[in-house]
Amino acid sequence: SPAHDLSKYLAVNGVGTFAGQTGWAVNVSREPEAPDTAITLYDTGGPGPIDDDQDFFTSTIQVRVRGLDYAAAYAKHEEIRTWLVVPTTFNGETTRFCGVSMVSDILSLGRDDNDRHLLTANYQVLRQAL
Fold first, then answer.
1. pLDDT band for position 87 (50/70/90)?
2. How many Å apart are CA 115 and CA 64, to the nearest integer?
3. What are the Cα distances from residue 63, in Å, to 2, 26, 108?
4. Positions of E strands within 19-116
5. How far apart are CA 41 and CA 116, in angstroms?
6. What is the mean pLDDT of residues 108-115?
7. Mean pLDDT (the chain, rounded)
8. Which three-class secondary structure state does DSSP give residue 83?
9. pLDDT tens digits, residue range 35-71?
10. How distant, in Å, are the alpha carbons of 5, 29, 110, 124 from that of 45?
11. What confidence score (pLDDT) does residue 95 get?
């Protein structure tokens, strides 16, 4: 899935540790209870194939960041944006990512039941089947 491939991409580039138990944990589809600092990517659909051969797809993802410190969580979101919105292609496990664009700015969702800040942003992804 795009969220899975992009979460691995973020982890490989030092944004966090994939499924980590400490520090910035990068997750897919499920936000863990711990650690307090978590990055979770969700597949949110999108219009699907954009050519008759179904080689190119437009998908959307949501990135959610959780942290005790608002400024640190916001800065982590800005770092994620820097890694995702780059003018380059890179390969995931099953697709080549041809472009990622931010479709909503960073939005605060308030705090969770443990008083941790929740921030989210949405991205559109252009990818090609390998």
1. low
2. 15
3. 12, 10, 12
4. 25-28, 38-49, 56-67, 90-91, 95-111
5. 18
6. 97
7. 91
8. helix
9. 999 999 999 988 867 767 678 888 999 999 999 999 9
10. 15, 13, 24, 10
11. 79
Euclidean distance between CA atoms 39 and 41, whole angstroms = 7
Give me the residue label for tokens 């929740």: 118
For residues 23 and 32, the answer to whether their CB atoms sit within 8 Å is no
Cross-sheet strand order for the sheet of 38-49: 17-18, 25-28, 38-49, 56-67, 117-129, 95-111, 90-91
Residue 58 CB: number of other CB atoms within 10 A? 15
- Written as six digits, the tokens of 69 are 């410190």
CA distance 11 to 25: 9
- First vs last Cα of the chain: how many Å apart? 13
**Cis geometry, peptide bond prior to residue 2 (ω within 30 degrees of 0):** no
**Structure token digits, residue 39:** 């990055």
- pLDDT score of 115: 97
Query: Is there a contact between 84 and 123 (Cβ–Cβ < 8 Å)?
Result: yes
Burial degree of 61 (CB within 10 A; 0-12, 13-18, 19+)? buried
